[in-house]
């Protein structure tokens, strides 16, 4: 049996605008109760993300959204590159984040968003992309592994979620 080629989902990617911020926050907040994708234990507000949004208006630290190809107002997911450590020697290393709306998961949108950023990375001066993923988040580890990320480190039991200790896996990829 041969592997099926990756099919592009019915979405269009574009840079995020200020009008997208409430939808970006909604998608992020939808991940909070699952205790799989974020260490936040309570929903955040749009105001909480204002500075973060401004930091992602720089060309070298993009914030990209996926919108439904047929209904351009329907936000399906988002992905971003963020500064890794804040010192000049690390400027070529970024942290990747990707979140997909619950009703759009399993359609290849996260893969499309991440691949888009990876393709742009060299033009942005990025040589290393890191992901910080809860060790129990097998779907995200599988996604990133399928895109060439490999485990670079493990931080055992660094988070407590609802009384349960959780580890953090650091994955990385050179581009």
TrEMBL record:
Signal peptide positions (record): none
Domain of life: Bacteria
Annotated transmembrane regions: none
CDD domains: NAT_SF
Record's keyword annotation contains Membrane: no
Domain spans labelled N-acetyltransferase: 11-171
Keywords assigned by UniProt, alphabetized: Acyltransferase, Transferase
UniProt-recorded Gene Ontology molecular function terms: acyltransferase activity, transferring groups other than amino-acyl groups
Protein's name in the database: GNAT family N-acetyltransferase
